Amino acid sequence: MPTLLSFDQAPPLSAPLRYFLTAPLFAVLAGVLLLYSGPDAFASRWTPTALALTHLITVGFMLQVMLGAMQQLFPVVVGANFPRPLRVATLVHASITPGALFLAAAFLTHEPLLFAAAVACLVAGVTFFVVAAASALRGLAWTLPIVLGFKLSLIGLGVTVLTGMLLAVSLGLELDWPLLELTDLHLGWGLMVWACILLAAVAFVTVPMFQLTPEYPAWFSRRFALSVLASVVLWTLADLAGLKSAATLLTVVIVVLAVVFTLVTLRLLGQSKRAKTDASHMFWIVSMVSALAACGLWLADGVVDRLGQWQGRPALFGVLLLIGCFTSVMIGMLYKIVPFLVWLHLQNTGRGHVKAPNMKQVLPQVRIDRQMLVHQLALALLLLAVVWPRWFVYPAGLALICASVWLWLNLLCATAVYRNQRLKMGIVIQ
Amino acid sequence: MRQSRTTIDARGLEPPEPFELTMAALESCDASQSVLLLLSREPYPLYRVLERNGYCRETRHRLDGTVEVLIWRETP
């Protein structure tokens, strides 16, 4: 059994908040880059702008939110304590933030020194996080779906960073390494073993808890993460051995697993006991529908010839998956996690003498609803920009900036409530 | 021996409602009473608060997945 948390071991609020408050700024940078580059941004997945945009979202936004959420969720949902949580957060955040900036700048300039700096920062930050997280999870049963998901996703993160490091070294030093194969491995492990398994593990707990749905079926939650890992390992081996048919078949298996996850989640969301759907519920639906569309696009690629020849296909897949699926669900979760954390920490500060404001007072629903609408508008415009870049790329860039700034302001609003209430409580308790 | 028990079925309630209901129940209980909390998963943040406030607790897992947390005041 996990050990009990004592108050002193509880991660300070600033530990996860630094990640959550930094992440939207990278999405703002992505919007600015989109405006700067104009209609050429989606011309190909290999352009410097497309690569920089992708990594501003994946490393700048997603990695920040995922690491912050893991550091906060471990003690709350599985009773696993990070050793020295504030020090871990400080070092990891101070490494991955410049790392993401260096990486985006390296793609745009092709400067070897920037690639080297990005690799050094990201490898250091992620290694430190993985070691600390593994230490926190040590001793917890692998049979619990969420623990299994956390552990396997850390392996996925490690492989993603390792392949990313090889790619960056190869690009920086202009080495003759198999870039296409390495990129496939980097994508497969990053999207499926790191991001998808982590998303599913968190969903197994937070969807029933916050969306008031039935629990995920045991047959699914126990087997999903291992099935994804086994399929990706086999696909990797087939790919490295040059067995093209086997590798293609295994990619279909992997995509079908993702489809099953989205369908099970959508079915559960449909069974929610909520009297009225709130923004976080909508974010989950948008996320799962986007993931389903991305999977459909992937599967259709092999069947519909015209789709395979269309240059915008990788960009459409990227927007659906990164902005539609992952960014949406992460924003939805931030709107549950941050007010909950503020409430929890104020409850602790009040020591039972002063009541903490409820979660709706920490972050008013109307602010969340309005930001959600702008985010959905940004997603729709980005999808249109892939098809008609000349018409929609500038509105899409502007909408992405607006949605991300709004998210940042909403999170700042919750932080300000925490700061003000703490001051008031300090006066009352004294 | 505890004389009476208040049961809170918090399965299907959104956080932090189970926590708030438990705290309210504990505040209205005297030393001879206990609170039985039924949840869908273990409430780790609640454990921390219980420990800090001098409460004892015993957790059991039912076969249907329900987590039972029995809480009572530690008597000197």
Question: What is the averaged pLDDT score of chain A?
Answer: 91
Low-confidence stretches of chain B: none
DSSP, total strands of chain A:
0
Total beta strands of chain B:
4
- Radius of gyration of chain A from the CA trace? 21 Å
Q: For this structure, what is the CATH class of chain A?
A: Mainly Alpha
What's the name of the CATH homologous superfamily of chain B?
TusA-like domain
Helix content of chain B: 25-40%
Shape of chain A: globular
What is the total number of structural domains of chain B?
A: 1
* Sheet with most strands of chain B: 4 strands, mixed
Give the overall pLDDT of chain B as a whole number.
Answer: 86
CATH topology of chain B: Translation Initiation Factor IF3
If classified by CATH, what would the architecture of chain B be? 2-Layer Sandwich
CATH-assigned fold name of chain A: Cytochrome C Oxidase, Chain A
Q: Quick one: CATH superfamily of chain A?
A: Cytochrome c oxidase-like, subunit I domain
CATH architecture call of chain A: Up-down Bundle
